[in-house]
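From the methods appendix. Each design record in this collection lists the tokenized structure first, followed by the designed amino acid sequence. Records were kept in a plain field format so they could be parsed without special tools. The example shown here is representative of the layout used throughout.

RECORD:
FOLD TOKENS (221 positions):
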């Protein structure tokens, strides 16, 4: 499961703007980021009324897929709201981090963005697992605090405390005895695939180390 980090805060606190600036910083560090925004309404207008995809959905299609040369999107009926863990597993599997906007409930780590001066009104006083606060106000909190313009500092903190500190499996790939450097999302895909195969074997003991060796007999030496 990829790490999940929610940015929470009251309406117009600047969550979207901050996330918009944070994503490029994390991209530059080599991390792939997926995002999800919480919508408390019973539905949302994904496509404009009257368009073909909207007409398909209105006609009763359980799922409508929008496809283009550069993007693909899925509109699908669900019986109950999906948890962040399910969203991460089903739709963000090739990312290194899922950033959520909203989702105050749940056990995932959260960063609060606030303009409040009164500490008693802060979400970190009400919700679990708030790990940092972003505010330009001077607040007396026992949490890491960052200014709104400290985008690079927040990105570094996320890399250290959430991404690299996350208890991920160590994967090493050697080709012809030479170690090959892998980007995080490729390492995640390989690790998840191999562990999934091992899990399907229903071994009695949980494996601590897994070694896989492929010999290409058709290759010329």
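DESIGN:
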């Amino acid at each position: 499961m990829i790490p999940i980090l929610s940015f929470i805060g009251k309406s117009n606190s600047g969550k979207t703007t901050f996330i918009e600036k944070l994503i490029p910083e994390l991209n530059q560090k080599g991390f792939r980021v997926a995002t999800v925004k919480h919508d408390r309404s019973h539905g949302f207008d994904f496509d404009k009324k009257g368009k073909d995809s909207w007409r398909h959905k209105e006609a009763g299609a359980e799922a409508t897929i929008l496809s283009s040369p550069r993007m693909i999107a899925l509109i699908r009926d669900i019986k109950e709201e999906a948890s962040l863990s399910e969203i991460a597993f089903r739709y963000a599997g090739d990312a290194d981090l899922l950033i959520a906007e909203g989702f105050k409930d749940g056990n995932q780590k959260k960063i609060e963005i606030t303009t409040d001066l009164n500490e008693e009104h802060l979400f970190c006083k009400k919700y679990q697992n708030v790990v940092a606060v972003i505010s330009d106000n001077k607040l007396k909190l026992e949490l890491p605090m960052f200014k709104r313009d400290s985008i690079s500092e927040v990105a570094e903190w996320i890399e250290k405390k959430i991404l690299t500190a996350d208890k991920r499996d160590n994967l090493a790939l050697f080709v012809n005895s030479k170690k090959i450097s892998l980007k995080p999302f490729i390492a995640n895909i390989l690790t998840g695939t191999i562990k999934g195969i091992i899990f399907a074997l229903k071994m009695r003991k949980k494996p601590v180390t897994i070694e896989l060796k492929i010999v290409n007999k058709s290759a010329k030496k």
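APPENDIX NOTE: The two ends are 39 Å apart (CA to CA).
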